[in-house]
Specification:
about 290 residues; five-stranded antiparallel β-sheet; four-stranded antiparallel β-sheet
Length: about 290
């Protein structure tokens, strides 16, 4: 699938910021065999006084920028064309959970894709007694790793309400789980915690999701949003498989990847520090337009 993608994130400050440093992870990823960028343009307004392009530990493209002069507003934008061709998984073979533990133990590398990075607690996610208790009835003793992913995603899709007003970007998975509501970030964090609790290495994926308007309705410009889903390590032969618990489906060509990490803290589209006073407001809009 070919997509034209537009992203705009703006910040307005009550008082001018006279210094700031930010890390951006907003450009779709280049993933050999899965996703390619045909053309791309990163927009930063006002122009940064310092700009460094880099690749983080998990292989995500990032841009670090800095300002040393006063500014009242920042706009970050992306305009790009992406060719997304997720592999056709067909039947997904994976070991039983007991065998998965043996395969993780035998994995003797510590590169970005190593399952060892995705088993324990991470900055935003840790297994809890409550989530372990929720997961236990879903998992049979002979269940395979991918079947466990499906069972947990299906249960969360059934039991949690999607509610964009219920949580914020700083809401903990424990709070969202207790209320059984949240957005895609919450669904992803909770599923990751549940999977790690049963020994399945799991990570977080940020990106875009193609949305299809109701029949007879026009697609609204800017109505799409950034999205999040989960990847789980399903054994030595299969490797990583991505699943969307918010929509209860296997990730394919409608999902465009930006970054992959342990949780949101590794892949946040914008984070950093600035010197100012007062509050700030932020707006975000996304367009994901499929091309014939």
């Amino acid at each position: 699938m070919l997509y034209d993608i537009g992203l705009k994130i703006s910040y307005d400050y009550d008082q001018p910021a006279n210094a700031g440093r930010h890390m951006l992870r907003v450009m779709p990823a280049i993933l050999p065999g899965e996703q390619q960028i045909v053309s791309a343009n990163l927009i930063i307004d006002p122009r940064a006084e310092e700009l460094i392009q880099l690749t983080d530990f998990f292989g995500n493209a990032a841009v670090e920028i800095a300002y040393r002069s006063a500014h009242e507003k920042i706009v970050f934008g992306v305009q790009c064309r992406v060719d997304r061709h997720a592999p056709d998984r067909g039947f997904i073979a994976s070991p039983m959970l007991s065998q998965l533990a043996e395969q993780v133990s035998a994995y003797n590398a510590l590169g970005p894709a190593s399952p060892h990075h995705f088993l324990g607690a991470s900055p935003r996610v840790r297994p809890t007694v409550e989530m372990d208790a929720y997961t236990a009835p879903l998992i049979q003793s002979d269940i395979h790793a991918f079947e466990a992913m499906q069972a947990i995603a299906q249960a969360l899709h059934r039991d949690m309400a999607f509610d964009p007003k219920a949580t914020t970007v700083d809401t903990s998975p424990e709070e969202a789980f207790a209320g059984r509501h949240g957005v895609c970030q919450d669904f992803a964090h909770i599923m990751i915690a549940c999977l790690r609790g049963i020994g399945v290495p799991a990570g977080y994926v940020s990106g875009f999701l193609r949305t299809i308007p109701p029949e007879g309705k026009a697609r609204l410009a800017g109505a799409d949003a950034m999205h999040a889903w989960v990847r789980g390590w399903c054994g030595r032969e299969t490797g990583w498989v991505e699943f969307d618990p918010t929509n209860n489906l296997l990730v394919q060509n409608d999902h465009i990847v930006i970054a992959r990490g342990r949780d949101y803290s590794d892949v946040a589209p914008v984070k950093g520090v600035l010197r100012t006073s007062g509050s700030q407001t932020s707006e975000q809009s996304v367009d994901v337009i499929p091309l014939a």
